[in-house]
Please model this.
Amino acid sequence: MTSSNPDKLLLLILRLGGFCCFAGWAWVHLYWEGPYGILLWRDETFALAEWFGISWDEFVGTGANDGLVQKWLARIGWLYLILSILTLTVRKKSKVQMAFLMGGSGLLVVLSYAKYLAALGQLPIFIEHGSQMLIPVILVLALSLGVRHRATVITAIVAVIMVFSGHGVYALGYPWPTPANFFGMTSLILNVEAETACAILRVAGILDFVVCIGLFVPLARRSCAVYAAVWGFLTAIARPVAGMSTDLIHWGADQYIHEAILRAPHFMLPLYLFFLWKKSEDPVVSEASASLREEEADAYMSHS
Model:
């Protein structure tokens, strides 16, 4: 049986979320540099390179030439670019492409772990990357099991909760301090003083946790999903809105646009849940109904 139009829309949302995430990180790797310095610029890493007969100049570069680390980081960028294309081309029976996407999820986990170490082990910075780390997995689950399958939906809910709980902890400033860029973006975009920005962030932090709880409440989950989608979009575009300026080369687009694009899963996954949860339709019931319709169709074909 062919997929219904609503299911095609749900799958398209997951594809676009995965595409934007991988494409944004591809830009980071190819134009700038991946955030792996905390993992690579270590005595242990160089000791391993030295064991393979690689000198210090070959490892870090000479100034005139890139070293082994920079060259491989750029090559990882091409891998992210390939993964972004796979999110649009992968099909239900494309086992090899699905395997590559699962590997892409692993790459995003390593990347998030590197950012976690660079932030001196602040757990929220790892958790808030949950949607990015899990969206390739969710796409594979949607293709192999279905966009309304329990495993797909639960994984998407977990990803959204990770993002909003991580943001919520930082916005509340407890037990980890609120990052300075949170205050900076809020003050600059809303044109408010630091004290007002702090109050706004505290309210936003409380609402982040309301969303996390509301996703489990049938009467509230759709409202929470649409709020999460809107807030996820606003926090994503806050980077280019706050950072871009006509005084910068290319208006600063090369520095900030990708920061919004790679955060697409932060609002795409709540959007997926919003369209999934129709008022008169439960995902588990929908799955059972779809299976029943397939069985009835098979029975009809066998008697035809």
